[in-house]
Amino acid sequence: GDSVTQMEGPVTLSEEAFLTINCTYTATGYPSLFWYVQYPGEGLQLLLKATKADDKGSNKGFEATYRKETTSFHLEKGSVQVSDSAVYFCAINAGGTSYGKLTFGQGTILTVHP
Amino acid sequence: DTGVSQNPRHKITKRGQNVTFRCDPISEHNRLYWYRQTLGQGPEFLTYFQNEAQLEKSRLLSDRFSAERPKGSFSTLEIQRTEQGDSAMYLCASSLAYGGSYEQYFGPGTRLTVT
User: Fold this and answer.
1) With contacts defined as CB-CB under 8 Å, which chain A residues touch B45?
2) B34-92 tens-digit pLDDT
3) Rounded to a whole number, what is the distance in Å from the CA of A86 to chain B's nearest CA?
4) Which residues of A touch B107 (CB under 8 A)?
5) Contacting residues for A2 by C-beta, under 8 A, at least 6 apart
6) Is the dihedral of CA A50, A97, B48, B115 positive or negative?
7) Of B15, B7, B30, nearest to B77 (Cα)?
8) Rounded to the nearest 5 degrees, what angle is found at the Cα of B22, between the Cα atoms of B107 and A40?
9) Which of A45, B34, B67, B107 is the most exposed place for a label (fewest CB within 10 A)?
């Protein structure tokens, strides 16, 4: 079945450091790829998405590129802020028989210190 | 613009009791999803509706769980004879059914604690 594997956390960085959170997936179809973020005490918010190979999703300084050959969608940000502290979830929508549902990774906790 | 809303936000119940949660999707969205999230894990899919039709149910959705979306607007998720293992955050999401990405927008969740 479909699955998503995320880099284990927690990740602790100093402000302005470079961030990478790795995400790889297994899917039977041609999935759309997503990153969701969950800030403390809030619900899941869509951060960015990509729907086909080599697409780059970007939002709020975060980027991720759809790499079909390596089945990966790593999240990056050049300079993190304290306000980026949250839990980040990679997710796929594989279509086909799993049409409609999202399959999530286990989440990566990011803490950014001043 | 109102997002997805869920009620109640918190529910504490005793084992064996029945509970019902409500989800109101974004008004123009015709798809509605339920997920369950336990501590330290990502959300897991439970079921989804397109309009009033329930199109897919996860094996996680035991016979004690039932979901409805009677008029294709709000949805309810009922858990009968709750067990301690049902303690989790129950998330609702909605989306439009067009294009290829089917972006889902999530509500704040209902946190269930079974004592």
Assistant:
1) 101-103
2) 999 998 899 999 999 999 999 889 988 889 999 999 988 999 999 999 999 999 999 99
3) 13
4) 43
5) A25, A26, A27, A28, A31, A92, A94, A98, A103
6) negative
7) B7
8) 30
9) A45
